[in-house]
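Shipment paperwork, digital attachment
Item: protein structure file
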Amino acid sequence: LGMADRSNKGLNLVLDLVRTQTPWSKIPPEIRKRYQSQLGTEDKWERLRIPWALQLHLPHHTTMLIPKSKFYYRALEAFRVKRMPYPYHYQREIIDLLGILPRRYYSELIATLLASERGFDEVPSFTARDVVRLINIDRNAYIRIANACKRDNQWSNVKRRHAVISRYLPPPPLEEGTPDPWWNVWTVGARKQEEGVEWEQKELNAFSTITQSESTLAGEVSRTGVNMLHCRGRVWFEVKLTPQDRITVPPLEGFVMNKLNRDQFERLMYEIFVTADESYTLQELATVLNADLRLVLDAASLYCRLGFAKRVPPHGESIALHVSWESEGGNQPTGGLERQGTDTDDLRDRIALVYDASVVSWLMMGSFSATLKQLSVSMFEVGRLRAKSVEQLITEIGKLDRNTAAAAGGEFLEYFEYSAALRRTLLSIQAGGKRKVSMFRLGSLANLDHKTRAKLLERYTCVVSIAPSRATTEHDQNPPSLGPPSRLCRSPWMKLFLYQSLQSGPASVLFSRGTRITTLPHPLRKYRRYLVVEWDASNSQVASSNPVTGKTEGLDGSGNGVLIVHRCEIVLLLNSRITLHPVFVQGYETMEFEDSKQGKLRERRTSSGHARWASAIMMAGCLKRDEDMRRIKSPNAHSKELTAVVPLPFPTTKADTKEKKNSIEGRGELGVPVEAYEVAKRVVMEFGVGRAVGYVRTLTEINPKTKEIKWIPLELEFGVVMFQHNSNTTQCKLLETDELLSEEALKSHANDMTAFAKRLDKFVSKYSSGPGKGWLPRHSLLFDGHSLRRLTLA
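Attachment content:
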């Protein structure tokens, strides 16, 4: 509710009334009448005020119809049911009224989970981190406790399970709950002498120091003493932030990759992960996110408590530290960061590199470095690497050894090549330190609303994308983007637009949902294998999920959304998939020879229908199960014999063209056939994208009868190529100079991309149902190799 749609005036009015704790009697009658659907009746309003107040992290108010203790008990139970982190924003009231500390809360939560025999994965990620921090139970410890409990003789008695569990829970860790020196420390009531428990002198001294002052910082007390008091539940910590404070997010340590709650507060926390910058105050950050300041402060406080963020100390701040904080290896004097060399010293020449989840998988699966894995987790969960962390990433990738990757076998060498290409790209963009680079995960940017994303990116000189990317976000070229200029670039419409504009391309069909076929349209029958892409309602090719929203992000950068299907399987596959969503199918490999016997068998249609036709094929033994259907697991997995990749931009001078035409291999060290180069040149001239960074993939078509080879366009992608060494090297050489990233070049490029996006939008509007219905096709469309038309099925 704290991040509700600002266009919904009725909901915003309700939220304002909740924030001001307005009782029913104080709501003006005209407002009650106008927004009756939101406000309801008096009874409904009073019932809903409390859960809404809890979601907005509002305290108890005297106008509420329930006592204060019951309000905070309901808050605790609401958080416990959803397994959310302890409600630290109500900590003072919960401790004073209910006496429940965070350690007890988490111990009971874990006990309930164990008693119901559920897994540790059921604990959401942020909650799991606090569980590890405070009660020392991680995934492995949880499994050990669960196994020990099940071996206990009393486990079969359900009523005795909590008693059994309590015997196996570990003691709370002494050091894991160590506060930062700037945290406030408060005592839990007056000093009491527990039965059989003696107070140590360090505890007594620390307790005395805390009680002698109205407000005490943890750094002013003995580090060991305050830890012992906290471990035994005698003190609690307040992590208080003000609207003028600033935070920064270093690489994650101790993050637990578990399930998500997908509630509004968790969503806000992930948005802060991406947008938090030490140049923003928390007040400014709330403005950028268009979020409630109270919720932003609570989220930032929780981040600092979990160790995922650091408070940036204001200039001149100093704490009279107890000597133990330095002698015992404590934190920095202010518990924050040194201000020298921060990411915000120079806001000029800042470049944002946008990557997708496939890049993270390369790093995680292909690395042997714990530091690199930590950075990879940050890239995925935080969704961003700041400039300092990018420098660390470059260093860690540089430590990888190609021979070690090759010796590991499997796909490790391919992962190494991808990682090396990423490092080469980052170094080229930095241009010897002239520019600073930050990295953003595409899914995290897509999770932000348009205004927030625009405010975040406008601080950068340019946005550079990796190609091919999982999807893209709406971008108005402010700042200029060396990447896809429209979301439609990652949909089948892009290919149809390319083919129709050039009047050249493989025969292709975009089947609308619900279509049924008994055989392929005639132009597709000359192929042996096909490329098949399933298309969801977000006009993106079907792939994996966004870790925050759970929604599909589109085509995976590794190509996981594309199938190569043998002609013997294609009709069966299409009929099974078109019932769910539109499907895009295009010819990929033509028949290289004519086998009249099998050819007639494949085209045979009998009165008994398609099932008998397919059975006849299988009986004839024409199906090869290892080749019938496979996914393109990486962008480099396309057939080298059928396709060629031409990187963009490329020189277009007469002298260069003449030199390349005289080369048998086409463009020199790239090894691209001259015919493929000519196709790419046609693409550049047709769309005016001579300054774009990307590539054109071309395809060969072989006439089965004449054996004539013809090169045609297959796809146009925008962004820096990662999957091919020569192409990446060529583009990186241009990125090092000002040829692509100068102010004049970026301005011209932005104009070119804006014109391209408008032309693409106009084309799609002609054939689609519009943005309201996900740009889905109104009818099935056929491109026959020369022109696009509506497909009519017999």
